[in-house]
């Protein structure tokens, strides 16, 4: 039982570290969002 709890804890910590390493830059807009941005720039 202790081993499974420790394994679960390490798994959660590993996932947290892996997700923290991915750079959270601004996401690229979708096609529809890009069209709205272009329309608002032309006005």
UniProtKB/TrEMBL annotation:
**Which key words are in the record?**
Signal
Question: Which residue intervals make up region (Disordered)?
Answer: 21-43
Q: Is Signal a UniProt keyword of this protein?
A: yes
What start and end residues bound the annotated signal peptide? 1-20
Protein name as it appears in the record: Uncharacterized protein
């Amino acid at each position: 039982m202790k081993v499974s709890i420790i394994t679960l804890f390490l798994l959660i910590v590993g996932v947290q570290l892996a997700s923290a390493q991915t750079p959270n830059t601004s996401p690229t807009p979708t096609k529809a969002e890009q069209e709205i941005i272009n329309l608002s720039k032309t006005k």
